[in-house]
Design brief:
The complex is a heterodimer. Chain A is mostly helical. Chain A has nine helices and no strands. Chain B starts with 17 loop residues before the first helix and ends with a strand. Classes of the chains: A mainly alpha, B alpha+beta.
């Protein structure tokens, strides 16, 4: 990523394109977990990447790049929500609708049960934890701390350490479907 | 409820282990199926980033309306408004019979500028009139991006204004 960044700063469209491919899925989750509709999230991502071009000269490290992108995406998402041009699904219950993987083998059914258990456990976590884990899951490992900072989380809480959200999730999973921390 | 065995209760202060990395990978998989990014979005973003002029102002999509105008059904008209700090760009897109589209636009505040529409084919450039009106009679369907070029000679800090890429 560091090499791609310096190539992009030197004007390589190809390198910039690879960075777009690499980090857009993360920014999508940031925008969507901020409560934007699909259409608004698409607009916000385009805006953020175009704005990056004018800021690229000031960004020298890959972690700073990821942090800048996440911060700017959050800020743009707030701006769009504040403008209120579309009804925002603030209370969207994303955990209600885990799509089926389709019919499958016995192996698939077991896998599906595991997915459902994880989905259910995620749904039991506080909203802040849901958002954090959702975004962390799409974050390249070296950038955890930068992204945590961009999300307004104390760096120590998820930098090199497991953090409370992941610890809670693992306890929920270990306890099975009937376990509850509530 | 019995407390989990002390040995396997994961503390928040411990470093991430393989199981954590595995769980995060599983979470990613879940959200990739529950809320996938549109597959063509990175391509549209890359299209919108291929700019020669790096001193640009970004116009954000402010409003979009879609009206089915003709009884035939396939002919539709869309109006889209983009806002930037210095300029509002409004465009209306109508289907031509030959499969291309006509794009009529207005700049506010009204001004004469070079307006470019970047497409998958050759870019097209027209000039807006004193009322801020401009028109592209035939634009190929597909990805498109508008660029309102800075006045020449460049006056003060008026920069080029670009819109996000859109599908027309």
């Amino acid at each position: 990523m560091a090499n791609l960044l310096s190539a992009a700063r030197a004007g390589s469209e190809d390198a910039l394109g690879q960075i777009v491919n690499e980090l857009s899925p993360l920014l999508w989750q940031v925008a969507r977990s901020a409560g934007l509709s699909q259409g608004d999230a698409e607009d916000v991502l385009q805006t953020v990447w175009i704005r990056l071009i004018t800021h690229l000269d000031g960004i020298h490290e890959a972690t700073a790049l990821t942090g800048w992108l996440v911060t700017t995406t959050k800020r743009e998402a707030w701006r769009v929500r504040a403008a209120g041009r579309k009804q925002v699904l603030a209370d969207q219950d994303v955990f209600a609708d885990l799509p089926d993987q389709g019919p499958g083998s016995e192996e698939q059914v077991i896998l599906d049960d595991q997915r459902r258990a994880l989905w259910a456990a995620l749904g039991q976590l506080p909203r802040r934890c849901q958002e954090l884990l959702r975004i962390m899951a799409f974050t390249p490992r070296p950038d955890y701390a930068a992204v945590a900072a961009a999300l307004g989380m104390p760096v120590g809480s998820i930098g090199p350490t497991r953090g409370r959200c992941l610890a809670k999730l693992r306890i929920l999973l270990a306890d099975g479907p009937d376990g509850s921390l509530a | 409820m019995t407390p989990p065995e002390p040995g396997r209760l994961p503390s928040a202060d411990e470093p991430l282990d393989d199981a954590d990395i595995g769980v995060l990978g599983d979470i990613r998989g879940l959200f990739e199926s529950a809320d996938p990014m549109p597959a063509d979005l990175p391509e549209r973003i890359r299209f919108g980033l291929a700019l020669r002029d790096l001193e640009v102002e970004v116009a954000r999509l402010a409003e979009e309306d879609q009206l089915a105008v003709a009884a035939r059904g396939e002919e539709q008209s869309r109006t889209i408004t983009f806002d930037s700090d210095s300029l509002t760009i409004m465009i209306r897109i109508d289907a031509n019979r030959d499969g291309t589209v006509r794009v009529d636009g207005w700049l506010a505040p009204p001004q004469c500028r070079q307006v470019e529409i970047k497409t998958a084919a050759e870019p097209l450039t027209v000039a807006s009139d004193a009322q801020g009106r401009f028109a592209f009679a035939r634009v190929p369907c597909g990805m498109a991006q508008l660029i309102v070029h800075s006045p020449e000679p460049s006056s003060g800090d008026t920069r080029s204004v670009v819109t996000p890429a859109l599908i027309i």
